[in-house]
């Protein structure tokens, strides 16, 4: 009882807003609203960019988590604190910060533009960048936690048997922490899918190119609350379905 | 941005509750009978600078009053009011959002247009791309930000542009973010209200004749469910008065 009551209250707190959306949803016009091409464009863009952002986070984030968990170097606490910066920063501020670095006049962006003709703001690549920036800490923290929980003796045994650092990492460490990496990836993907502030600030809003579902929901809210509810439910349904399917496959299985 | 708006509602509610505590305090004698206590004003984001000044002037003219503002996009404000936010006055940047509130039966005594606002082309200080009119925005090397059609500045931009072929790189969610894209140098030009361009020292404003076809009217109304009816009426009257209008004209608005 002592735990059950707050647990149920917690569940209720998380689920009630969803109930609000379902109750107020215009079910009769739902099929027609969902069939609009602009909706599918936004949904497809969201799923694609969130997946690419997760891939970026995995490639960069898993090694970073390894560094934080296994390597001993001065200033590690500071580095770990820096990793959580995107969690603390309001996403809109994150978007402005990205503009100051990768924008047309940005620290790196200006050079990218003049040297390679690459400009990131207002592009789909810009959406991926903004989402990866905001979502990466979720992955790094989850994987670091898994690495710290894993028994290092397996890695030491591999090393004594002559495995190099890379072989040990890919053949021993990664399989050990695979559930943690999967959980972190799922969390990262979900956060990227719902990303709004950094995306609209850094990548702008243009249908088919940078207008993801959260942006479409926000703009629908300006004129048509019912349309916004429909879009929100669709985004929720898609993300819950994908996450549940992945969870069965990777995390508990 | 959405949580920010929710926070604004929560804040408005908290402020209204906090203000309730002072309601019974003996207020100093004011010019008009019964005009005292807190007045909660929901106003379009583009009115931020002008209304903040007007609020301070109003408090001076009516001792014992305390004006609290909730500045946000007009459509978000309309939604908040219709969902029961405790507001006394609504000043909208577009008649459409006022209509939403009127249709729901939440205004009192009808809405009055108190100012008009017109679009200009905002460009970086010194106008490096030499933009002189709307036609220059169609050039391929000019990056343009417009507001999304769903928000008033975007609807006005669409009307002003007409058949001209302008391909923006982004459709921003409100006029301030369109302006900030110019300030940050990410775009070369944006269609924003004259008042927004005027409030920013980092941009220059280029007037263009087509904007006359898309002038935005700002209506104001007292609200039926507001806790301070006398204060609401007095605030609306003050905005419509000579003193109120002078502040608005100084900010770049036009008389209706």
From TrEMBL, chain A:
The protein's name: Molybdenum transport system permease
Family matches, as InterPro entries: MetI-like, MetI-like_sf, ModB_ABC, NifC_ABC_porter, Sulph_transpt2
Keywords: Cell membrane, Membrane, Molybdenum, Sulfate transport, Transmembrane, Transmembrane helix, Transport
Complex formation: The complex is composed of two ATP-binding proteins (CysA), two transmembrane proteins (CysT and CysW) and a solute-binding protein (CysP).
Location within or outside the cell: Cell membrane; Membrane
GO cellular component, one term: plasma membrane
Family per similarity comment: Belongs to the binding-protein-dependent transport system permease family. CysTW subfamily.
Automatic annotation (TrEMBL), chain B:
Annotated keywords: Cell membrane, Membrane, Metal-binding, Molybdenum, Signal, Transport, Tungsten
UniProt entry tagged with the keyword Heme: no
GO MF term list: metal ion binding; molybdate ion binding
Function: Involved in the transport of molybdenum into the cell. Part of the binding-protein-dependent transport system ModABCD.
CDD domains: PBP2_ModA_like_1
Annotated molybdate binding sites: 46, 74, 175, 193
Organism: Actinorhabdospora filicis
GO annotation, biological process: molybdate ion transport
One Pfam family recorded for the sequence: SBP_bac_11
Protein's UniProt name: Molybdate-binding protein ModA
Major place of residence: membrane
Protein topology in the membrane: Lipid-anchor
Leader sequence segment: 1-18
GO CC term (a single one): plasma membrane
Subcellular compartments: Cell membrane
Similarity comment text for this entry: Belongs to the bacterial solute-binding protein ModA family.
Quaternary structure (record): The complex is composed of two ATP-binding proteins (ModC), two transmembrane proteins (ModB) and a solute-binding protein (ModA).
NCBIfam families: modA
